């Protein structure tokens, strides 16, 4: 029985100065690093995802010249680019599994991606006997939402640390958190960890 920390898309393109910057992204990166310094040892696995889109094509309609910022977006997190790298403020030493997602597809959830050895996040959690997971990262209303919903669907008890997330829109982030609570997630603060 163990606990997982799921760190969603803390990447340069989603933090201040990035192609699809989320306000508060840098603060989340720093706060997750501080949290890891104190709490990495509490977790059996620490899984971090990176959006890793193809440079060619529109990644299943995910990239658009005139994005609506709901279902389509400016070009971001192209595989291997600076924008796709973990934010420079994120301490990555304690991460046990690095997941890439979104090659040719939107893939909001880290459960749609795979580790460097080709495992899904679901397989990683099952193999480690994970029954509960804490979810942090970017963005609340998109990839955090989708990843947390998939964790619940995988049968894991989910806490979302509300001080370690940031969203694209205020209203859509509120709605995402309400949806997560309805689905069974607990909203907590990292100091309660
Ligand atoms: C994300 C918008 C587009 C995210 C990814 O990581 O939340 N948001 N692609």
Structural commentary:
- The structure is a single chain.
- The protein has four helices and seven strands.
- The protein has a single domain (2-192), classed as Rossmann fold.
- Helix 3 packs parallel to helix 4.
- It has helices at residues 25-39, 121-127, 140-153, 170-183; strands spanning 2-8, 45-51, 97-101, 114-115, 130-138, 157-166, 186-188.
- Strands 4-3-2-1-5-6-7 form a seven-stranded mixed sheet.
- The protein is 26% helix and 22% strand.
- Strand 6 (157-166), helix 4 and strand 7 (186-188) form a beta-alpha-beta unit.
- The mean pLDDT is 98.
- The radius of gyration is 15 Å and the shape is globular.
- It is of the alpha/beta class and 193 residues long.
- The protein binds pyrazine-2-carboxylic acid.
- The site of pyrazine-2-carboxylic acid (VGL) has 9 residues, from helix 3.
- Pyrazine-2-carboxylic acid binds next to helix 3.
Any chance you could write out the topology, listing elements then pairs?
Layout: E1 2-8, H1 25-39, E2 45-51, E3 97-101, E4 114-115, H2 121-127, E5 130-138, H3 140-153, E6 157-166, H4 170-183, E7 186-188
Parallel strand pairs: 1-2, 1-5, 2-3, 5-6, 6-7
Antiparallel strand pairs: 3-4
Helix pairs in contact: 3-4
Label this structure with key terms.
single chain; 193 residues; alpha/beta; Rossmann fold; 4 helices; globular; binds pyrazine-2-carboxylic acid
